[in-house]
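Field reference: sequence -> structure
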Amino acid sequence: MKFENCRDCREEVVWWAFTADICMTLFKGILGLMSGSVALVADSLHSGADVVASGVTQLSVKISARPADEKYPFGYGNIQYISSAIVGSLLLVGASFLMYGSVIKLISGTYEAPSIFAALGASVTVIVNELMYRYQICVGNENNSPAIIANAWDNRSDAISSAAVLIGVLASVIGFPIADTIAAIGVSTLVGRIGIELISKAVHGLMDSSVDTDLLQTAWQISMDTPNVHSIYFLRGRHVGEDVHFDIRLRVDPNLRVRDSSAVAEAVRTRIQEEIPHARDIRLFVSPAPAAALPARS
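Structure field:
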C-alpha cells in the first residue's frame, strides 16, 4: 500500500460515500422539482440508487473482513463480488425506468425548459461525485476491494450523468427545451452501461477468474529465485474478494530432508506475501525433483 492509513480509509470511505449520496439525493431531488428539470430529478433517482449501493457496499466490506471458519474455509471475500453485482443490478433497473419515463415524455411532447437553478444543482453534484470517485478509487485499488471500486465507479457515473444534465439544462434555458429530456435519456443509457459492466465483472470474480499473467509470472519468478527450488510444475492464482490466492507445486532437491523441504516452502510463501500485494492464502505442495532432472555433479 502507498500509505500506512489505507486500511483505516477502507473502513471510513463507505461512510463518507453513504453520507454524500444521501445529501446529493435530497439536494438534486428538491432542486429538480423546484426548477422543473426532468433530467435533474432523474439524476436524483440515480443518487437514490447510490444510497442503497453504498449501504450494500458497507455491509459487504464488513462481512468480507471476517476470518475463515468451518462453514467458509476460504473466507468471506467473494461477498464483495455479490455486492458489486447488486450495485450493477440497481443501476441497470434504475436506468431502465429513467429511460422509459424520458422516452414517453419525449414522444408526448410534454417538456419545457427548467429554471437556471437546475444548472447550479448539476454543477455541485459533478464536483462532489468526482471527488468521491477519486477518494474511493484510491482506497479500493490500494485495498484491492471489488466492492469499493464498484462504488467508486458508481460515483463516477453519477458525476458524468450530472455533467450531461448540466449541458441539457443550459441548452434548455437558452432556447432548446427538449434538451433537458434528451439529457435524461443520455443519463439512463450511461448508467445502464455501467451497471452491465459491474455485473459482468462480478460474474467473472464469482467464477474464480484467474489473476493477471504478470502476477503469475511474478509468483513464478519469486519461487524460482528461492534457494533449493528446482522447478515449478503447477501454478495458478485467483481473486477472492480483496485477496489473491495461489496454488503452487514445487520440485525441490530430492536429497533434502522433509523438514528442510518444508522450510523451502515456507520461504516461498513468505516472499510471495511480502512482494505481492494482497497475497493471502498460498497453498504450496512440495515434491522431490526426479534424479534425472538434476544437474550432474562433478
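Note: Strands lie at 229-240, 243-252, 279-288.
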